[in-house]
Design goal:
about 450 residues, alpha+beta, six-stranded mixed beta sheet, 15 strands, lipid metabolism, lipid biosynthesis, O-acyltransferase_WSD1-like
Amino acid sequence: MTSDLLAPLDLAFWNIESARHPMHLGALGVFSCHSPTAGAHAADLLAARAAAVPGLRMRIRDVWLPDVRLPRDLAAARLPLALGGATREPDPDFDPLRHVRLHAPTADFHAEAGRLMERALVRGRPPWEAHVLPGEDGTSFAVLFKFHHALADGLRALTLAAAVMDPMDMPEPRPRRPEPARGLLPDVRRLPGLLRGTLTDVGRALDIGASVALSTLGMRSSSALTSEPSGTRRTAGVAIDLDDVHRVRKSAGGTVNDVLIAVVAGALRRWLDERGDGSAGVEPRALIPVSKRRPRTAHPQGNRLSGYLIRLPVGDPDPLERLRTVRTAMDRNKDAGPNRGAGAVALLADHVPALGHRLGGPLVSQAARLWFDILVTSVPLPSLGLRLGGNPLAEVYPLAPLARGQSLAVAISTYRGRVHYGLVADGRAVPDLERLARAVPDEVETLLAACRI
């Protein structure tokens, strides 16, 4: 295993973290079992298998002058951009027993997951953890995986987690073509091309910055979904039938993702009205992440994200009109492309020197509430059934990081015919998160009724 420079967005996630705003994502998997000792056996398996997964042995180290091979798209002339950055490198003292923990039996997996999601990962070690939570009834156990966003985005975290599950028949990964080592000084024959590339990058950054600024003009944050950070976390989860989502889509139009986002808008409306805050006039800005990872591309590794920004029509009382509004907004974003609008702000990370990320991280973290009020993200999962120690994975709830100043993040995954909504909230600002979770299937029923299905 060799060292790699952190990609710019990974470096941004690494530097905006604080004690009250850890930047790890998670997944709570619930397994069916027939033995009260199945959880302990699962913990032993996870620790034994983690030692054989190279990606789980990687730590992140802050460095001033990276001593690594430069990838093709980080030309030697751009080396100053890496000064003050960080590398992903093997941990010589890696001990899987530090990362896999067996807890006491519990009757509430989500309550335990919320408490564990509060805790930041240890930065001196590979930034991931697996917490095994046996169920009190002896018929199930849960595993909470935590991965720092700088180590893995949703897709990469899925790959790492799947590597410690029971073996499956999966296609062999495409081998990476070795990259030649480069010197610290550029080849003078390449300077004209490198200069043109740098100027192009600057122009692209200015264009993105302008579109971000214009798209946020006149926007006000929704006080219902923003709060002063308390550092506490609550999680909740709920599953709905994918067939119901398809029925709504076929009747009302749009995509599956449009329907899933509209369900979030309707659930928020119910929740706000039930808790007495009122939904009238509420249109929170939702950031919908969009992956820009290029297939079959080894470099750059790490997160490659942009995003779409839409107004959730929470205040609209008509469920089908809410869906039409979401569909129209998403279509408009797709037509404009992921390089436009406030959601494209993540792309600016590619144009900021590493030292700028290190020094400006705390300031950037405080600006999240200026761009969006709530994160609504989809995390892909394989359609094949996963197992751990022979025990089938029955439910899986993705859990997204919570940005500074925001009270709620929603992550969505589809697994074996069910759509799982994973909710993460500031525990003090949203003590009734379970009420919001219960509103999700109610909103699906409302859409089905409106479609007369």
